[in-house]
Amino acid sequence: MDNQNTSRPTDDSKEWKLIEKALMASQKEQRTSRRWGIFFKLLTFSYLFIIMAVVYTANDKAGDKGGFVSGPHAAIIEVNGVIAADQEASADNIIGSLRDAFDADEALGVILRINSPGGSPVQSGYIFDEIRRLKETRPDFPVYAVIMDLGASGAYYIAAAADEIYADKASLVGSIGVIGSGFGFVDTMEKLGVERRLYTSGEHKAFLDPFSPQNEEEKEFWQGVLKVTHKQFISQVKLGRGERLNETPDMFSGLVWTGEQAVDMGLVDGLSSSSQIARDVLGTDELVSYTYRPDPFAKFVEKFGMSFGQGVATFFQQQTMVLR
């Protein structure tokens, strides 16, 4: 046994270093191959997912805009929530939907399905004017407004442009007025010992500043601005409703009424729903939404692109670290 010679290489021998180098190279190769395999599998899955999303989105949009809907139908456009430039019920979105509906040959008419407390008089005015303009381009294409829970202020401004307005007996209708509100913190600041330091160029530049004392001259000026806007609102309502209005002293005071009361006042033409209008007035049971919807696929692609780019960068960074 003493004469038996074991040929195990020492840790610092050339043979051992070659074996160690070969093993490390094989390990790196396997790791690289595995990561590339995962990368390409994810890439393939992503492409398949995108293709499926494109097909789904196309079909969904086609259904919304009547792309695959054959035959006569009522074009539904929803006016939901606050009417403002940065909201879904913005003038750009609603006007785009209106133009699509007026361009649809098989659409029998538009039904504006309104559920809104109002909002910007500018945005409402844009929509009012566009409805009247579009009606001139296609006089035989009716526009109906159906007020659901609420059709107040700027929402009623829009409805007034329709050929006829309908509501539920319990809907809230009206609020034909203009409001400008804010807060005053002058006394609070004095109690807290806070000094207001405000520098302006222009005598009335800070007239709406909540931390400055109210000026009666500026208050009167602002009230005049609100009155002018109110007169514009009233003028458009009268233009749209005409002789159907049974004007009362408080009709344009900012109050709201139920749909049943609004019929007697001439603010609405009757009690009905959008499906009833489509069936009984337009003569169809087919309702097709032309309402603007944010494109979920576009958002997905944007987020996916960012995530995918970060993933690729991380992947190649890891590869660089491994191959060093």
Give an overview of the whole structure.
The protein has 324 residues and is an alpha/beta fold. It folds into two domains: 15-56 and 298-323; 67-289, 2-enoyl-CoA Hydratase, Chain A, domain 1 (Alpha-Beta Complex), CATH 3.90.226.10. It has nine helices and eight strands. It has helices spanning 14-65, 91-103, 121-137, 154-159, 186-192, 216-241, 259-265, 274-281, 296-323; strands spanning 73-80, 107-116, 143-152, 164-167, 172-174, 256-258, 270-271, 287-289. The two termini are 46 Å apart.
Q: What distinguishing features does this structure have?
A:
single chain, 324 residues, alpha/beta, 2-enoyl-CoA Hydratase, Chain A, domain 1, 2 domains, 8-stranded mixed beta sheet, disordered C terminus
User: What is the assigned CATH homologous superfamily of the largest domain?
Assistant: 2-enoyl-CoA Hydratase, Chain A, domain 1
Largest sheet: 8 strands, mixed
Helix/strand order, N-terminal first: HEHEHEHEEHHEHEHEH
Enumerate how many helices there are, as a single number.
Answer: 9
Which structural class is indicated by helix and strand composition?
alpha/beta
**Beta-strand share of residues:** 5-15%
CATH architecture of the largest domain: Alpha-Beta Complex
Radius of gyration: 34 Å
Terminal CA distance reads 46 Å
How many strands appear in the DSSP assignment? 8
Mean pLDDT figure: 82
CATH topology of the largest domain: 2-enoyl-CoA Hydratase, Chain A, domain 1
Q: Can you tell me the residue ranges where pLDDT is under 50 for at least 5 consecutive residues?
A: 55-64, 315-324
Reading off the top of the CATH hierarchy, the class of the largest domain is best stated as Alpha Beta
